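Subject: Protein record for review, amino acid sequence with backbone structure tokens
Category: Structural biology, sequence-to-fold work with a learned token vocabulary.
Format: Residues in single-letter code; tokens as whole numbers, each standing for a residue.
Body of memo: The sequence and its backbone structure tokens, given next.
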Amino acid sequence: MRNHIEIVKNNKKIKVFGNQATIDRAISLIEDLELTGIESKDRLIIQRCIDDNKIGATILYDGNTVYSFNKIVDKYKKLQKKNDLYYLSNDLYEFFMNACGDIAHYDITGYAYYYDNSFRKLENTFLKNCRCNDRFSDVKRIFKKLQIGQYYEERNKIDLNKLNKKDIKKLIEQCGWEVSISNADIWQLSVNINPEIRFRFELDAKSYTSSDIIFSLIKYCVKFDADEYIELLVNERKDNNYPSVRSIVNNTDIICSKMKQFATDLVYYGRIAAQNLIEKEEVDLEIEMER
């Protein structure tokens, strides 16, 4: 068990865990804080102290951990980008387990296995529904920033028009597709189906807004008619009946799978990218106001 020291301020017990050096440093900083005795206020004061001073110790206020805002948000966004729970850190695992109340696990390996190693599955099946008591203001601040729990539906309100066409091109490439844009604003998207076949389709994006482009691409993927596509390819075959109907059907199944994934990825990563731009604008505005 790690060393710990307990102090009392305004009748509230504060425990600090870590090695002796990190404990001593944290205690000296906490002693100087103007805590109120009101948990929801004090937890935010301590959280900002943790981040401003990069405190390495673990701090419990009245028996519950106060979480670093910067550390949790940073690690969450990195995991969100990778969409792979193989990269789940112990800090984030403990946050999901204790702050979010997720008990779908025995250990960190079992936790990743339970969600099929998919971070997005974790978001869509648990984090969208997790709840936080108002007294845990440090956790609630993290929820709001990451748009999870009671803030999850805010993701649907993100303005995708914050993105420009260059941003969308990067998103498409991030999703594993290639895109070329003509001077007439015709977007041609393509993806490898196998070493011999590459699937392509086009979108006339002239006069389209960024959100129009994204949702038009999604609409194309969702409405793709596999049976009609198979019939077209079968009718276009040469006299030797090559490729076989089975091959055409198998390749079409791969196309459908790739387009379904593309539609999901595009709106997901698009919202993340747009939100990052909004947050950057807010930070730039704060800096400008301080000047």
Q: What stands out?
A: The CA atoms of residues 82 and 253 lie 25 Å apart. The mean pLDDT is 93. Residues 161-290 form one domain. The chain has three domains: 3-66, 72-157, 161-290.
